[in-house]
């Protein structure tokens, strides 16, 4: 029986890291050619021959297509059921994005499972054919390629890559993988390299009433993942000498175990999402899970620590951007808070180097995949595709950055909030101890400039500079309160009391000065209005900075400003941000208000005509994306799961 498929703007197929990220921009597996998140063609193709007649089951083809009877997207899996000529086939793309197994999560391997049976009770001769193009291995025009086939412990493998490897050969945005080797591996069937065209999997079987199963794996060995302040570093799970063939062998042996873990993760996440926000929130949570992890790379640093580095997709390609990490952290706080420390670690390292003389936190640590020093606001521009200068080597006093394009209050607040939130949810305290003097500088900056900020950028820099930004000031208030808690963890009780008192005084002043005609204003001169998403931490962390009835009034004021596809970011335009929208919904104590804010975002996912991976910046009147594709900030839609149950009205 045919059922309505889960509808997302694009379907995640391979979702492992910023380069190994392949999507179907449509409703079924056969409606278009598969693409990288950026839109670059990265063809995957699938055909099935049933009793001698061929049909397409993956990718755009001249062949007749199998009929899709159901399609479901969960946090870790994309499951498609198709039927034709008496044969039913389930194809499942799944990535073990398991936050309680970071070794597995960090290795770029995706499974493709096949399950076949004949509902008509007859026997059918079936041949499956799956192809992955060599275009997964290069950016732009095809260079000379090379590859080979071999077996390891009964696992058949085929690999392909460029004949001339230029590891870590470029940086920038809308650039795809251009070095390393694509692997295809399977236990059953034939795996072979197709000249310079790609790798292919073929399996023949007899399908009857009983279910026949098989799987293949697609893995990518990037050789080196990130230039981390001069050191070429690989994936966390491949540290200690593990190889991609070794990882594929291990994953194959653990197939059933990893699949059960994914199913359990899906059930846990979706049950909680449905309890909070019904099927609307379950859809949003499913759309964001693999999407968020795939916008990061988890590496092992030379010191043996974890560094979790985002790529600022469809923006400027920055790596480790602080105000991109900040909205992403709810997913990690909920399911693996140590990853928040891993987000902060590279920023703290760079901010401690001689070149960074500022009293505020940096914006980023480079341009992906080069974590070699902030590039945002750098006076020396770098064309897309070129390599930025190694700013981490510069001496103190070097005139590197234009102060007008920094985000001082924004990034200081972000870092203090993220570090304290990580600790509150169970992360270790080594970073706050190691970098205590740096944090003291940043909180003093907030204290001096955060109460009524001058004209500067915030994370919503696409909206331009803004003076007296009420929401940015709210971040400063929360940042001071978080720093007071950090001091308590360090045993500095007297100083903690002083900072807590200062935070409460600033909060009282903020509440009085922020009042607008209805709800709070955009700026302290009373003009406009805006989402006050930064205040959500008051509820998440129990800071008790503002009275509870404030949140009732503020969130109800949003309902009158909603458009068909959601609440605009502020009074200046009709566009919104999905992450901030969910943060504002989380401030609501009334579950009905929460659901009313969430529903238009689900409506956007179900109906938008722009077929790109879950965009976080879209128009609330037209339902079309404005910019930003496949970004890590979608981890922010998990914010409702951080609200303490009694405070949320559950």
Question: Could you give a quick summary of the protein structure above?
Answer:
31% of the residues lie in helices and 21% in strands.
Give a structural overview.
The chain is about 30% helix and about 20% strand. With about 650 residues, it is of the alpha+beta class. It has two domains: about 10-265, Distorted Sandwich (Beta-galactosidase, Chain A, domain 5), CATH 2.70.98; about 305-650, Glycosyltransferase (Alpha/alpha barrel), CATH 1.50.10.10. A hairpin with a 2-residue loop joins β7 (about 75-85) and β8. The longest helix has about 40 residues, at about 255-295.
What's the level 1 CATH class of the largest domain? Answer: Mainly Alpha
Major sheet strand order: 6-7-8-9-16-13-12-11
Oligomer: single chain
Low-pLDDT windows of residues: none
The N- and C-terminal alpha carbons lie at a distance of 37 Å
Mean pLDDT across the residues is 95
The CATH topology of the largest domain is Glycosyltransferase
Domains, number: 2
Number of helices: 14
Strand content: 15-25%
At CATH's second level, what is the architecture of the largest domain?
A: Alpha/alpha barrel
Radius of gyration: 25 Å
Helix content: 25-40%
Q: Classify the secondary structure makeup into a structural class.
A: alpha+beta
E-strand count: 24
The largest sheet is: 8 strands, antiparallel
Silhouette: globular
